[in-house]
Amino acid sequence: MDNKSAEEYVGTYIDLFSGCGGFSLGLGRAGWKGLFAVEKDPMAFSTFQHNMVKVGSKYGHFDWVDWLPQEATTIQKLIENHHDNLLGLRGRVDLIAGGPPCQGFSMAGMRNSNDPRNKMSQEYIKMVGLIRPKYLLLENVRGFNSAFKKKSDGSDSIPYAKIVQESIEREGYKVFKDYIHSERFGVPQTRTRFIMVGIRDDVFSENNQSPFVILEDIRRKFLQDKGLTLSPVTVKEAISDLETSSASLINHSGPSENSFKKLDYKVPEKLSPYQALMRIGLDKQKPNSLRLARHRKTTINKFKLIQTICRPGIVLSDKEKAIIGTKKQTITVLDPHKPSKTITTLPDDILHYSEPRILTVRENARIQSFPDDFDFTGRYTTGGERRKKECPRYTQVGNAVPPLLGEALGVLIRNIKCNLK
User: Fold this and answer.
1) Element (H, E) at 36
2) Nearest by Cα to 120 from 53, 41, 44, 186
3) Both 224 and 109 in a single domain?
4) What domain range is 308 assigned to?
5) What are phi and psi of 209, to 5 degrees?
6) Do 305 and 226 sit in the same domain of this protein?
7) Is there a single domain that holds both residue 194 and residue 309?
8) Could you give the CA distance from residue 68 to residue 17 in angstroms, rounded to a whole number?
C-alpha cells in the first residue's frame, strides 16, 4: 500500500491479465485502489509485484485480499479455487480492467482465429459475471475488432469484439467501444488500441455522454497536468538522453571482457518535458534495464546499411529488404522527429534512429511511458520454444498497456463515476 488513506481513493479495481503492470500503474496514478491482479507468467508477475505490491514500493496502491496468494496464476484457477471469495466481492469492486492476450488478433503478426489465447476474453467475462463491478475497461489491439478471413464453408466470421460485447451486454451492461490513439495522450508511439467501456445498467443513465466524448473533453487538461502539449511527443524527445554516442559504457555485470555493456546514465543539463515527466523526483537516480545488445560486427554493418537506405519511421519495403538480404517481416528505423511505431515483443523489429543497434529495454519502456524508477525484473530475452512460454523484459514492455494511456482511461472512469453519483 502507498501513503493514501482509504477515503482518498476514487474506487477499487481488479486488473486481469495485468502483465508487468502498465495498466495498474496508470490506474493507481488516476486515484484507483487495487484489490488484486491476475497474471499467469511468473516473470511478468515478478515485475508487477516488485513495483506495485511490495511493501514500500513507490507505486504500491494495492490492498491485496488476504485469501489470494501473491503469485502468478490464471483466471481459470482463480475461479476454481476461490469461487465463493469472488462472489463475496460483489458490492466491493467498482472496476474490472484488463487487456486479454492479443497475439491472435494482432495485425502486426500472424492473425490466427484458432489461437487459444483468443479465448481469454471469455475468462474476463466469467469474472464480470461473478463480481459484477459497476464499470469495465477492456483494452486490446485494433485487430480485436476486425473479422478474421472467411470460414472454410465460405461464411463470414464475426469480429471477436462483437462476441465479447454481446456477452457483456447479456450480463447487464451498456457497452461503448472505439479506437484510441496513444500518441494523443502523451505516449510517444503510434499505438492504436481498441477500447471497450462497460457501465452496469443500474448505474447508467441515457442522459450521460459517451465515454469517448468525455475522454476527448479531458484530453487537454490531462496533457497540461503532465507538462505536455497537444502535439505528439517525438522519439527524440523521449529517448535522446539515452543515446550511447556521447555517454560512457560500463560492464553490465562482472569484469569479463565478454560482459554485456550498459549505458552509465548521467542526467543531462536539460531534459525535454517528456523526459522530465518520466524522471519526476528522481534527481540523479539511474534507471535499470539499460543493457545494450551484444551485436556482431556484421550485424552492426547491416544496421548501418539499413539506416542508409531506409525511409525513417516506415517499415522496410520488399525491395529494401532484398538489398539487405533479409526476409524478416518487419524492420523499421525510428524517425527521431515523429512518435515511434508500435513497440512489439520482438526487440529487433525497431532500430535506433542514429545508432546501429536495437533499443534497450529502458528505451522501449520510455516509449511505452513507463517512468525511469519502474524496475523490470527477469531475463532480458528468450528464444526458441521458450518464447511461447516465458515473458522476459522486452516482452513485458511490448505487451504492456502504456501507463499514460492507462491513467487517461482511469481518469475517464473516475469522471463517469463522479457524474453518475
Assistant:
1) strand 32-38
2) 41
3) yes
4) 296-359
5) -70, 160
6) no
7) no
8) 16
Predicted confidence (pLDDT) at residue 73 exceeds the cutoff of 80: yes
Mean confidence (pLDDT) of the chain:
89
Query: Distance between CA 13 and CA 1 in Å, rounded?
Result: 14
pTM equals 0.91
Could you identify the residue written with the cell 516506415?
A: 314
- Cα 195 to Cα 175: distance, rounded to the nearest angstrom: 10
As a whole-number percent, the residues of the chain with pLDDT over 90 amount to 76
Residue 239, domain member (yes or no):
no
CATH number, domain containing residue 159: 3.40.50.150
The residue-averaged pLDDT of 159-166 equals 86
Do 125 and 222 share a structural domain?
yes
For residue 245, give the amino acid letter: S
155 pLDDT exceeds 90?
A: no
Residue type, 159: P
- Structural contact between residues 63 and 9, judged by C-beta atoms closer than 8 angstroms: no
Q: Can you tell me the mean pLDDT for 299-316?
A: 95
DSSP tag of 341? P
Question: What pLDDT is stored for residue 111 in this prediction?
Answer: 38
Separation between Cα atoms, residue 363 and residue 399, nearest integer Å: 15
